[in-house]
Amino acid sequence: MEKLGASVLGISADSVEELAKFRDKYQLNFPLAGDPSHKALEAYGVWQEKNMYGVKKMGIVRTTYILDADGRIVRIFPKVRVDGHIREVLQALKP
Question: Can you give the pTM of this predicted structure?
Answer without folding.
Answer: 0.82
